[in-house]
Amino acid sequence: MTQDLYALIAPQGQLTGNGQLRETIAERRSRKGQDVPFWYLCPELVVKFGIADSSCEAVIAKELTSINWLRLRFGGELKPLTMDIDELRQYAMELPPVPFVRDISVHNEN
Question: How are strands ordered across the β-sheet holding 56-61?
Fold first, then answer.
């Protein structure tokens, strides 16, 4: 079933780099159920669905307000589109990746 949706598109890592998007999607699904129209697309899925090239990641949602909120928080480009939500449910139910944690501690060798 196709629906009018909105995408937030950004360079890979811009949306997922700090883990906040992962938390946001997990919380939204916990509160509103697994069928909430809100998906993360890794670069491979961005290409599969013809949204952008493989250097980008995206979030797809039915509500423009959700995408606008994410855009204010993470940046990126808004793109309206029409997609098959059954395909999104089939391929895009994974949470965004866990963020890469860097060791920023300072070692004093005195």
Answer: 38-41, 56-61, 2-11, 77-84
